[in-house]
């Protein structure tokens, strides 16, 4: 069984003493920028259609923007180099999203403009916010995010809601 963010959240929230630590838990209001546990992101293609690259991701809100830390080889990141800086973002939680028959598309959606965050001070603040939002998960993922930002294998994206 592969370790995923979803499985980590499910296990942690199933432990009664730890469930209260989950940001919004499974009761987060869909569309609530601060408490929603997940964002679902899809870049737009040149023809204005949504990309097939659609994923459930951890995110943090900072200064009114949504921030996502992605593998630098992901389409979300590579699309920017092709001038594809528009994306659609859904906020909420639909359970096992790959098995949800695209239920996330029924959540509140926002179109956004994407850009890469490169300011070191801002990156540090954002990574700290990931730790605040996902405290137990961060024990496992902190090094991968921080080291990935440092070595270029991960990229922080800022989405400005349109």
Provide a count of the helices. 5
Order of helices and strands: HHEEEEHEEHHE
User: Which regions have little confidence, pLDDT < 50, spanning 5+ residues?
Assistant: 11-31
Residue-averaged pLDDT, rounded?
84
Placed side by side, the strands forming the largest sheet appear as 2-1-5-6-7-4-3
The largest sheet is: 7 strands, antiparallel
Determine the N-to-C terminus distance.
38 Å
Q: Give the radius of gyration.
A: 15 Å
* Count of individual beta strands: 7
Strand percentage: 25-35%
Q: What is the helix content?
A: 25-40%
Structural class: alpha+beta
The gross shape turns out to be globular
Describe this structure in words.
There is one protein chain. By secondary structure, this protein is α+β, with helices and mostly antiparallel strands. Helix content is 32%, strand content 27%. It has helices at 5-14, 16-19, 75-81, 120-133, 135-151; strands spanning 38-43, 55-57, 60-62, 65-71, 86-92, 109-117, 154-161. The protein has a seven-stranded antiparallel sheet, with helices on both faces. Strand 3 and strand 4 (65-71) form a beta hairpin. Helix 4 packs antiparallel against helix 5. The longest helix has 17 residues, at 135-151. The protein starts with a helix and ends with a strand.
Structural topology:
Layout: H1 5-14, H2 16-19, E1 38-43, E2 55-57, E3 60-62, E4 65-71, H3 75-81, E5 86-92, E6 109-117, H4 120-133, H5 135-151, E7 154-161
Antiparallel strand pairs: 1-2, 1-5, 3-4, 4-7, 5-6, 6-7
Helix pairs in contact: 4-5
């Amino acid at each position: 069984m592969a370790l995923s963010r979803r499985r980590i959240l499910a296990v942690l929230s199933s432990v009664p003493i730890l469930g209260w630590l989950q940001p919004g838990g499974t009761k987060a209001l869909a569309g609530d920028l601060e408490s929603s546990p997940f964002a679902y992101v899809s870049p737009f293609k040149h023809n204005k259609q949504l990309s097939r690259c659609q994923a459930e991701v951890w995110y943090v809100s900072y200064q009114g923007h949504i921030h996502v830390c992605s593998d630098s080889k992901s389409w979300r990141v590579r699309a920017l180099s092709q001038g594809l800086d528009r994306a659609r973002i859904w906020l909420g939680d639909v359970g096992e999203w790959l098995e949800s028959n695209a239920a996330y598309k029924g959540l509140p959606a926002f179109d956004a403009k994407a850009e890469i965050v490169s300011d070191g001070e801002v990156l540090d603040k954002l990574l700290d916010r990931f730790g605040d939002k996902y405290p137990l998960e961060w024990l496992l993922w902190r090094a991968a995010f921080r080291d990935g930002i440092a070595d270029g294998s991960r990229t922080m994206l800022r989405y400005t809601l349109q």
